[in-house]
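INTERNAL AUDIT FORM
Audit reference: QA-55
Scope: verify that the stored structure record matches its stored sequence.
Auditor: D.O.
Record contents follow.
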Amino acid sequence: MIDRVPRAVCLGEAMIMLAADTGAPLEDIETFRRSVGGAECNVAGGLAALGVPTGWISRVGADGFGRHVLRDLRTRNVDVGGVEEDPQRPTGLYVKHSLGGRTRMHYYRSGSAAAAMDPGFLDRPAVRDRLAGAELVHTTGITAAISTSAAAMLDRLAALRDTLGFVLSVDLNWRPALWRDQDPAPLWRLLRAADVVLIGADEAMLFAGTADPAELRGLLGPRATIIVKSDAHAALALEPGADRDDGGRPDDGNQLRDRRTEVPALTVDVVEPVGAGDAFAAGYLAATLQGLPMEQRLRSGHLSAAAVLAVPEDHAAPPEPAVRRALLECSAQEWAETRVGPMGVSVGGLV
């Protein structure tokens, strides 16, 4: 039995991150800082930090790295009771360092415990119970890419959504290296089945050949709310079939057009960009589960992303609840004047 059924469940791989504090070549680095990374577990931690009861479901190696992942997420109030330990396969890891002013990432995840997830994994009682109780399930294109069995599992997840009734959220997280020599058809299926699609404008160009929201709607189909993030500029939400005229009728006769909501990004003194997309997803999804209007959902995403941009790690504590509430409700001018950096959030007269 689950003591507290998570409202949100994140499904995907976690890895150990080994980060270097120097700008030396990898072969010259002697000391690394260890932390936990991975898109879905970053989102799970971000949701939990915003007060949403959240679970993370995956597989880890029955090794010290896997035990550290579980301990780290428990410390961050994420439920890990649906995680399976693998005695044969290892927990994946990646190395992050800076060289020539650019962040370099080196992944060591081939044959990981998480890559062995398959459709039958969703039938484990600990997994099925959490999916059945969740209001929202979040995953990413990375999970679709790590193995053919994991991609098949996500096809099954989409089918279970129609049976169990949760909202399916997918962050594209396009990683060309993971898809080398692979057909991205499973990822297209997953995106078209989703209720929420989060996609960066730059990765949309690489993956779909366009970042135009209307063209993305045509490619992804009519179902999802599509969130297009333009790096440091803005986030745009397309809600399907939302616009009606004053009489409550579709404004073009038979088709309901998307409702568009756009919110500019905050000004941030950036320390490290890795993890900001996952933080945006957590902030946006938390505000969605909290029933906030779309403008505040996008602001919540920007706030969580800004907090991560201002630290060297892949995740960071969100702004204090009073600060977050003030910024979600502030005027457009106050929002535009807000600045986030390593010392926190500042805006004249507001926080």
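Auditor finding: record pair retrieved intact. Residues 244-254 have pLDDT under 50 and may be disordered.
Action required: none
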